[in-house]
Specification:
Chain A is an all-alpha fold. Chain A is built from nine helices and no strands. The longest helix of chain A is centred in the middle third of the chain and has 29 residues. Classes of the chains: A mainly alpha (253), B mainly alpha (202).
Chain lengths: 253, 202
Amino acid sequence: MQRLILVPLAGAVLALASMALGADAAPQFLRALLVASLLLMAGSGFLTAARFSAGDRLLLSWLLLGAGYLFSAVRHGTRLIAYFEPSIALPPAVNTILVIAQNVAIALALLLFVLAWRATGLTAPVSRQAQLLSIAAGITLAVLAGGYPLLQGLGTTDTNPILLVSTAGDIVGLALIVPLALSAFAMRGGLLMHTWVYLAASEVAWLLYDVWWAFEPRIQLAENVNTAIFEALRIVAILCAFTASAAQRRAMR
Amino acid sequence: MTALAGRERRQLHRHDAGGHHFDPRTVELRFNITGENGIFLPLVFDLEAGVLHWLDLQSRGELHLNNVETSNRAITALCPRLIAYFESGTRPSMFDLGLNTAHARGERSALRLTRLYFRPSMKTSLLPADTVREKLGHYLGPFTAKNAVQLAAKQSAGTDADRVTRAQIPALVEALGPTLRTLLGKSTADKVAEEIRRELAV
């Protein structure tokens, strides 16, 4: 089970390795890597969902997670194809719908995970006060990290709906980091801990992605380095979700 | 002392254990079983089950030279009967007494040790709930497994997990069902429940 950490690490290393590629090859390589990660996660999510029976709470969670990443795979897959066949592109309306569907599906899936844990009536090994404080801190962090682009988007005259929906979805996901991590902490030493820890890790990677997005303009880095770090964080987030699904399946053997 | 290992008494270094004088002031733990002579059985260890039975028993026996060999008949008759009597639950166990004492001292008591630990080569005395915790711990980790079993015990038997009897295990496993199904899905939850039932032979 410990070896699962190698999956997101390998993804990050590959993404960072794109810095060594030329200006033409790097974007294609990174896009291909992103699409592969998204497809891997979507497939793994559906496979995990298939292990559950009708009426199981986590069935819908894994289905939504798989669907969310599949929507993203379709968007980025189309962009990848566009490198070779520029005439192929998604209509803007479809693109917007896919972004909204992706964000809603992933945020809802994570929310369902947290609600499923609550439904069991089990508690984390920390006091109620500490739980509430840490959840409040997590939400504050999420709003601070995700709220920056949201405010920026709202401030401009031509508000980009994709940015707004994506950021709102991120805020929900980030706010759930602490509840997910607390569940993982409660299950430490058990097989299911890995599932919940990687779900939380995935959201932490998305948080870092948002933080990088906010601070990147102030840090003067070379374009290829900046893009590689961006994509490395995104790929780590996706592959952590993949690892969570693999851990869930392994626990269900 | 009657075990002379085949030697005559005068061949021993002293007529006591290892040449040391017996000093009553050095006694740290004593069993206060009264009786002029005979067989004194403060406790008995069941090595197979890994359980200590507190007997507090005195039987008249002989006037002198009472040892295990000469008293074997009485021991083999009395011990099983008393153990069966205690297991019937008619009298409180040491655990019950300890708990009662704790309850007398405060509203809430924290139980730190719930089972006896032996060297790995010897059998461990497991409560039925321990088996369930161990099984669930594989998936949920020890903390949540303990928590889940406690919740299910309260729900199914209205008692603490450590007091759940083997007969109450099917109901306890049933009560664990929704939690297991939520986190592991129906098929894995059923498999885990079946493993618990099989292991505890219920």
